[in-house]
Specification:
Low-confidence stretches: 1-137, 139-155
Number of strands: 22
Shape: globular
Strand order of the largest sheet: 12-9-8-3-2-1-14-13
Largest sheet: 8 strands, parallel
């Protein structure tokens, strides 16, 4: 029996869909190993999901094989060792192509043979062995075909976006400020050495998680350098154990994917100045000094010497535990620049022109050892010397850093290098992606998709001209050969103009037109998975955006640049606006993304204020009473907002329970000038959802025109349970000010 099952799966993968076999089977071959039938079934199901749109016959074969695997598990049978040898042979042929005509000929004869094997399911285990010669014949036929028609180039990655992202609710985590789960690994003063402002305070300690944000601590009062200088030296002790401890919180919220800001070793609080890419920051793991000892035994340029530190292993545990809860994990890839403590840059500083890594960076002038001055000059990101840029040509990263980055991709996407990416990350968010030439990202996509065809690539393609408020149209990056999506700041900007602004407020019709423009700019596949966020680690928080209407998005929204920026807590009316924005976010096209803490009422200006320690319900926080410039301000109670959290949970639950909201198309129903009411239809198959948003400051009776089919359906409220009626093709209801409703109807 198990011989037949393995034969069917093996031959089916290699012959019925040869190209997909080359790509996907490379990371799934472990499913044939003894005692691994459970994982075998899981991976076959994943492959079915990947190919269901293009290979129906192959999908039917795989589905049949899954049922046989279930029977094998029930009978406690194992796959015979001979198939491990077959797999070893077949793996050597991955990433090869075969003549489509030749494969078609082989398939014509192999599929009936597989069907014949299906009809012999009742054969006893011993009798199944008689079919081994047939297996060998078919496998060797495939080998011959591959060798005859092999081509050296790698198959291009699929332009399709990962299927799981359509249903994703993202949650962004800034790890140093999310949760201190292990105080034993808290940073020491030597751990911040190399980070701006390049000063080691005589007295220093980890900051209080629950303290008043702007209040200077005792060691910060040693001089008059002030809050914005000292804030960059603060550490609060957030770590990976803290994230692990709160995975159930995220799962209960409804999160299905987490985006984690940089986790690689770095002296700064933000980690965008990597000291190395191949290790997780030692203060995020359980044994900082032990990890440091491991670093010293490696050659960072040689992946063969790389080991796994305690922080690395804890990160892999985080991935595993997240996957157990059906939560995907993507991390920040900062491949445009590094930090001054980066191992290769340190070698260049030390050895100058004799360094083997001198071509990794753009050196403007070398130090003259005969003078007392330091003439060493190099190109840093945006002129920032703390962030040396990796050297590029017209095709992107230079050869040295390019090869190194590829090894980094392999390490974190398939940590045990067994061909199965299940133990690795599920994608990358690529920092300042527009500053690296597109040809590199095309190659990067091939690397990533070659390991995991369902990996998600999202680029930070943001400001074309920050000074004049012009954002990039990211279409060149979203043609299917570079990124799946970008961080959708253009969407956030338009939402802010409509929902929060007063003097600069746009009308509902202008809002609808602007959204339509954004949809036209990108292909539909990309629009469906754009990372729709209102705030991030690089902007003021959503709540503070509402408190400060009419500010330009990401423009002078902290107190250093705008001393009049209001740092107070949002009031009840402003929280209504936040709820309305979240309702729009969860029901529009794209992947909703929550910045940590927004769901429990956190507020804050731009850097560093949007990076406060997370609010938790098991902690008591000091009131916020201080101002960085000594100005008067209200005493704001800083506490976990349970009511706001409940609202987020409810809207997320509706989103996740609706195929129309995750997968459906979009049609505007109502955007009448002067009404401030926006209504739209999301439809998928027989499921229809109408979303109504009353953005005005007064309650309104709303009549929404429906098309012919929706007019014939029965509608029910999912959010507030409001009563609606349909008369003469109009859907009628009454909505309170700054509120909305989601109506659902299903064709019977």
């Amino acid at each position: 029996m198990e011989g037949l099952v393995a034969m069917k799966i093996f031959v089916g993968f290699s012959l019925v869909s040869p190209r997909r076999f080359h790509r996907e089977f490379h990371y799934s071959f472990h499913i044939f190993l003894p005692s691994d039938a459970v994982k075998c079934g899981y991976n076959i199901q994943r492959l079915i999901q990947i190919s269901k749109a293009t290979d129906p016959e192959w999908v039917t074969l795989c589905a049949s094989s899954c049922s046989h695997l279930t029977e094998l598990r029930a009978r406690s049978l194992h796959f015979p060792p001979v198939f491990s040898n077959l797999i070893k042979m077949r793996i050597k042929l991955h990433q090869r192509k075969c003549s489509s005509a030749f494969i078609a000929l082989i398939t014509r004869f192999s599929v009936p043979m597989i069907s014949f094997c299906n009809s012999l399911q009742c054969l006893a285990h011993a009798r199944a062995r008689s079919f081994f010669p047939l297996v060998w014949f078919m496998v060797m036929t495939t080998v011959v075909a591959q060798q005859l028609y092999a081509q050296p180039e790698m198959a291009p990655p699929s332009a399709a976006v990962p299927s799981w992202v359509h249903d994703a609710i993202f949650y962004q985590i800034f790890p140093e400020r999310f949760r201190n789960g292990d105080s034993r690994n808290d940073p020491q003063v030597n751990d911040i050495r190399g980070a701006w402002p390049h000063e080691e305070p005589a007295e220093w300690n980890v900051s209080s998680w629950t303290g008043d944000w702007y209040k200077l601590q005792s060691w910060e009062l040693a001089d008059d350098k002030g809050f914005y200088y000292r804030a960059q030296q603060r550490r609060y002790g957030g770590d990976l154990r803290g994230i692990l401890d709160k995975l159930d919180y995220l799962s209960d919220l409804g999160i299905t994917a987490i985006y984690i800001n940089p986790v690689f070793e770095s002296p700064s609080l933000h980690k965008y100045d990597a000291a190395m890419y191949h290790h997780i920051d030692n203060n995020f793991g359980p044994d900082p000094e032990g990890d440091r000892s491991i670093w010293g035994k490696e050659n960072p340029a040689d992946p063969r010497t790389w080991q796994w530190t305690s922080a690395d292993r804890l990160f892999l545990e985080l991935i595993s535990e997240a996957h157990t809860r059906n939560i995907r994990v993507i991390i920040d890839g900062v491949f445009n620049h590094v930090g001054t403590t980066f191992w290769a840059f340190q070698d260049v500083r030390k050895n100058g022109r004799d360094s083997p890594y001198k071509d990794w960076f753009t050196i403007k002038s070398w130090d003259n050892l005969e003078t007392s001055e330091d003439e060493f000059e190099y190109v840093g990101w945006a002129g920032v010397k703390e962030l040396p840029e990796l050297r590029e040509d017209e095709n992107g990263l230079a050869d040295g850093p390019r090869k190194h980055v590829r090894e980094i991709v392999k390490r974190w996407m398939d940590p045990n290098a067994d061909g199965d990416p299940a133990d690795g990350i599920d994608g990358w968010r690529l920092d300042v992606a527009e500053m690296v030439a597109i040809p590199f990202w095309r190659e990067f996509r091939i690397w990533v998709r070659g390991i995991n065809p369902e990996a998600y690539l999202v680029g930070e393609v943001w400001w074309e001209d920050w000074k004049n408020g012009k954002m990039f149209n990211a279409a060149p990056w979203l043609q299917g050969d570079v990124f799946d999506a970008v961080m959708n700041y253009r969407w956030a900007e338009q939402a802010g103009h409509f929902f929060k602004d007063r003097k600069n407020k746009i009308t509902v019709s202008a809002f609808d037109r602007n959204l339509a423009t954004l949809r036209r700019d990108y292909r539909p596949e990309a629009t469906a998975v754009l990372m729709n966020l209102m705030g991030s680690h690089d902007t003021d928080r959503l709540a503070s955006q509402i408190v400060n209407p009419d500010t330009r998005y990401d423009g002078n929204v902290n107190l250093k640049d705008n001393p009049d920026y209001d740092v107070r807590k949002p009031n009840d009316e402003e929280l209504k606006i936040q709820r309305l924005i979240v309702l729009f976010q969860m029901t529009y096209l794209g992947s909703p993304t929550i910045y940590y803490g927004d769901e429990v009422g956190m507020w804050g200006a731009d850097d560093p204020d949007e990076r406060k320690p997370m609010l938790w319900d098991d902690m008591t926080y000091d009131n916020e009473t201080h101002h960085p410039f000594g100005r008067p301000r209200p005493s704001d109670r800083n506490m976990f907002n349970e009511d706001l959290l409940s609202y987020y949970k409810k809207v997320i639950r509706v989103r996740r329970g609706s195929a129309a909201l995750s997968l459906g198309d979009f049609t505007t129903l109502l955007a009448i000038e002067g009404s401030d009411v926006y209504a739209y239809l999301r439809s998928y198959g027989t499921e229809h959802v109408v979303v109504i948003l009353n953005n005005s400051s007064s309650a309104q009776t709303i009549s929404i025109p429906l098309g012919e089919k929706p007019n014939q359906l029965h509608w029910s409220g999912l959010l507030q349970g409001l009563t609606v009626s349909v008369e003469d093709g109009m859907l009628n209801m009454r909505l309170a000010e700054k509120s909305g409703e989601i109506l659902e109807a299903v064709e019977r």
